[in-house]
Structure formats: structure tokens, C-alpha cells
Amino acid sequence: MKYPAVLGVDDVLPMLDQFDTIIDARSESEFALDRIPGAINCPTLDDAQRVLVGTTYKQVGAFEAKKIGAPLVAQNIARHIVTLFAAKPKDWKPLVYCWRGGNRSGSMALIFAKIGWPVVQLDGGYKAYRAYVAAALENPPPLDFRVICGTTGSGKSRLLETLDAIGAQVLDLERLAAHRGSVLGHLPGEPQPSQKMFETRIWDRLRRFDPSRPVFVESESKKVGNLRVPEVVMERMRASPCISLQLDRSLRVQLLMEDYHHFCADPGALNAQLDHLVQLHGRARIETWQQMANTGQMPELVDQLLVEHYDPAYLRSIDRNFVQYRKAETLTLPGISKDDFIAAARHLHTPGGHTVPTRSTNIGALEMPDDRPVG
Questions:
Q1: DSSP per residue over 291-357, as a string?
Q2: 322 with 242: CB under 8 angstroms?
Q3: Which residue from 181, 190, 270 is spatially nearest to 226, judged by alpha carbons?
Q4: CA distances (Å), 84 to each of 41, 88, 103, 134, in order?
Q5: How far is the C-alpha of 95 from the C-alpha of 122, rounded, in Å?
Q6: What is the pLDDT of residues 326-355, one digit of tens each?
């Protein structure tokens, strides 16, 4: 094959994992918005340089813009080679792309090929990749979703994490969205990705699943924080078999206190989020809850939020949105220890496939892992 090889998305994406390095030659802000999974950012023009070249192109002309841009591109590519790629062997195989697969990635790919590396340039660039992902999410693979349902604090996210840790196939939409999926679900210090990056993360997970094995997912709403779950993916989830996770309310309060410890330590942040519930519960009720937060009555506050807000909302929506919920298998957790979740996860997952629980299964009655602590 002659290099640089210019290949389209239909050829490149099925072998995406075969490239040694995926290089995004766009600017840092373009990269931050979304990128091909696993890509590193090596701008041929950074944000400021891109503005300079683009402004010159519009105000003066293409020739003057290229005279300004060419040395900047050459300098940037040289720096990337010296600092990142100088030690790469002759058979190092990179994929390079930019916005439309034009001058920026083309310049880098040409220099790489002249050095002797078998470089591939993505024809159509990120724009073609994005169109491919959007189309793929409109027709996702036929996966066997198993939907973990349960009221707030019942341990759905912990069960998904445990299932993932023991080798089950898991689509954890809250993790991909960096949000716990409720008005209090924002993760401190971790902003949500863009909608496009959220969809990229979902596509990347879906493409790796084995269709012959179940995929465990949580009973999410259409939006996780500010992000929308792709419509067809949501439709497939809502039509899938359900598992109803049950946990005593006192244990749910304890679990939520652990998972939302940042709010326990910062009542002001919690109260700011509670303001979003004024329209549903009225100012007087919200002020009562905020006073409970300010005076350290966190367990009592969490319990009231469950009884008066979260549980009623869940019960109103679950039957309507997940059509197989009424036939859901019930899985009851006796506690919230690591071993409790390991037992539940092992019950749902075996190396050879999926063990469907009985109509009502109490995990406390199952055999615990051999490494369960004594006492």
C-alpha cells in the first residue's frame, strides 16, 4: 500500500483498534468537544493560530493565509515529532485526522509518510466520523439489554460497577455522562461531556459488546443531567426485560449518604440544588429541607426526600416507560457491603452467559464469596 493511505470511515472504523496511535490534528477546543475514542491531540494549528489563519483567509485571501499557516503547521508538526514520536519504530502505524481530512491532517500524514511510517489519513476527517456515529446510533446492534430498575438509593449504579468488575457487559450511561441522573446528580469537579462526546462514548461501548451475551443497563430517563440518551437506544432499553432491585429504605439512606458525601460536607451546595425543586414542592417545603441540611439533619432529610420526592416520581414513571417492568424479576439486597453487591452481580452473571434470577430472589440467602470476612 502506498503511504500516506487515505481511507474512508467504512474502512477505518472497523479496524480502529489496530492503529498504534490515533492522532487528532485539530485545535485543542475542537478536540475537547469530541474526538475519535483513544485519540491524542496534536494540533497542527492551535486555537489562536487557527483564528489568525482563518481571519486572514476571509479578509485577505487564500494565498496569504497559506503563507502564514504553512510555517506554523510545519513548526507544530516538527515539535510533535520531536517530543512525542521520535522513538517510534519504522512499523509504527498511526491514524491521522482533522476536521474534514484536508490540509491539517494531510500535512502531518505526508511528513509521516516521508519519514517512512505507514500512516493512514481519515478521508472526510472528524466530520465523516461524526456522521458515521450518528447513523450507527440510529440503528444500533441488536443487543440483549437487561435493565436494572429500582428506587433512588437501591444500589443500581454500584451493582452495574460490580457487574463490570467481574466481566459482565455493562452500559453505564451515568458514568459515560459524568452525572448520577437526578437533580442532585452533578459530580463535583467533573463537568459533563458534550452531547457529541456522550454519543461517541455510547457508540464506542456498543460496538465492543458481544450480541450473544446480555448487556446490563440502568433504567435511565431520556436525559442524564443535560445530556440526551440516543432515541433508538432508549427505545431498545425500554422494551427490554427488567430486574427490580430492592433494598430497605434505611439502607438506601445510608447508601445515599455515602454516595453524596460531598453534599453532607457542603450544605450550601445541596441547598442550591434543592432550589430546583421549588416548583414541585413549594417554597415552604424546600426551606424546611434546607434548614434540615443547615442543622446537620442529613439522614432525616435524605429519608424525607425519598418518601416525598424520589419514590413517588419513580413509581409514576417506571411502569409507563419500561413495558416489561411488571414482569420484572425481584432481586433483594440484604445490605450494601461490597460482598452483598458481589453476590448479586455473580447471581446475574456467569462466564457462560446470564443466570436469570427466580421470580423473587433474596441475595442474603445465596452463598457468599469465599473471601467474605468472618464475623
A1: HHHHTT-HHHHHHHHIIIIIHHHHHHHHHHH-TTGGGPEEEE-S--SHHHHHHHHHHHEETTEE-PP
A2: yes
A3: 181
A4: 11, 9, 21, 32
A5: 7
A6: 999 999 999 999 999 999 999 999 754 444
Q: What is the pLDDT of residues 68-102, one digit of tens each?
A: 999 999 999 999 999 999 999 999 999 999 999 78
- Asked if 41 and 112 count as a contact pair (C-beta separation under 8 A), the reply is no
Specify the residue for cell string 498511526.
94
Whether 98 is catalytic is: yes
Residue type, position 312, single letter:
P
CB-CB neighbours of 78 under 10 Å: 11
| Residue 62 in grid coordinates | 487564500
- Residues 35-55 pLDDT 10s: 999 999 999 999 999 999 999
Its pTM stands at 0.90
User: What is the C-alpha separation between 144 and 93, in angstroms, rounded?
Assistant: 35
DSSP line for 101-155: SSHHHHHHHHHHHHHT---EEETTHHHHHHHHHHHHHHS----EEEEEE--TTSS
Packing angle of the helix pair 156-165, 338-348 (nearest 10 deg): 70
Rounded to 10 degrees, the C-alpha dihedral 308/314/320/322 comes to -170
Q: Scanning the structure block, which residue is given the C-alpha cell 451493582?
A: 159
Q: What is the DSSP letter of 276?
A: G
Query: What would the pLDDT profile of 146-190 be if each residue is shown by its tens digit?
Result: 999 999 999 999 999 999 999 999 999 999 999 987 767 777 778
Three cell numbers, residue 255: 447508601
Contact of 76 with 69, CB cutoff 8 Å = no
Confidence check: pLDDT of 372 > 80 = no
Q: In one letter, which amino acid is 283?
A: R
Q: Which of 98, 149, 242, 264 is catalytic?
A: 98
Give the three-class secondary structure for 218.
strand
Chain centre to alpha carbon of residue 366: 32
The angle formed by the CA atoms of residues 131, 132 and 138, to the nearest 5 degrees, is: 90
